[in-house]
């Protein structure tokens, strides 16, 4: 039973984040007058389809996301849909109005419109994350956790080295804190059990360098940090809920970006990468805890997808935007052959990373390690 729940939950999460991403491309393409040959929910064989105003809307057998096929786009789905659309443009007279093209090819649209289409998918991922977080924050029984210190524990080292009750934490180690979890995230990353704080105290911004924290050891001899202070709760008013959801999207986004930077710098091991198997396992675990944990993981995954798609790599939307910026500045498009070579090379690299991450996932499942 748990296996079935894991599969269903994984399909829900993957379908939601990919379908909303493609819906972003679709919506902006339509608004810009670009010809959309097909908008599909799911992949594989077609179960249902309908032509409307020059676009085929389809439902496919495999519920793992979807795709948007734009006229003039260099992708297998788009080229296949374009070929089918070309055939359909010579129909019987009674059906002609429903299948004729209503827009221009993507490659004939202005550069700025093409760039908007490319970034729209990631933007919709952020919107999905925001909506999910609004639901989660509004549904939780506890008040919203603030960044303002309520009390310092008696004798706590952090109180002796700078922090005071009433301080509102603005930044830790120079990084702005959007939500309370930012404070914990930055403290976990510190290796000296001390951190530089920027706080708002009596209306003034105050710098507190070298705030130290108490430590304790568990039975295995591992050293842990003791935070030593508690914070106020905030009433769940509509404005507070919306503000917290927006700041939480920024929090998740920075976690993703910081993790990538740590990976490149060698601070995090490449062995910690997770692939599809690891993500499915995490989704199943979250689903076993309840719908709130599943939605929280959905928010993290959709923001993750949005950030990754904006990276300036040729195989991703961010790489396509880079090509478009070059075209906009120079007045000449990057040669298609060069774009294809770079895209193929990046796909190879990403595929290799996915295989390596999947190997790590399977190894963790076999050994029982997390």
**How would you spell out the order of helices and strands?**
HEEHHHEHEEHEEEEEHHHHH
Q: What is the residue-mean pLDDT, rounded to a whole number? A: 87
Shape: globular
In terms of DSSP E residues, the strand content is 15-25%
Helix proportion: 40-55%
Which strands sit side by side, in order, in the main sheet? 5-4-6-7
Rg measurement, Å: 25 Å
Instruction: Count helical runs.
Output: 11
Please report the total strand number as a whole number.
10
Describe the main β-sheet briefly: 4 strands, antiparallel
Terminal CA distance reads 22 Å
Task: Classify the secondary structure makeup into a structural class.
Answer: alpha+beta
Give unreliable regions as ranges. 92-98
Report on the structure:
With 370 residues, the chain is α+β, with helices and mostly antiparallel strands. Helix content is 53%, strand content 22%. The chain is built from 11 helices and 10 strands. It has helices spanning 2-31, 76-88, 96-99, 111-139, 157-160, 180-189, 238-265, 276-289, 291-309, 317-330, 336-367; strands at 36-52, 55-70, 144-152, 168-172, 175-176, 194-201, 204-212, 214-217, 223-226, 229-234. The strands form 4 sheets. It has a 4-stranded antiparallel beta sheet. A hairpin with a 2-residue loop joins strand 1 (36-52) and strand 2. Helix 4 runs antiparallel to helix 10, helix 7 packs across helix 9 and helix 8 (276-289) packs antiparallel against helix 9. The radius of gyration is 25 Å and the shape is globular.
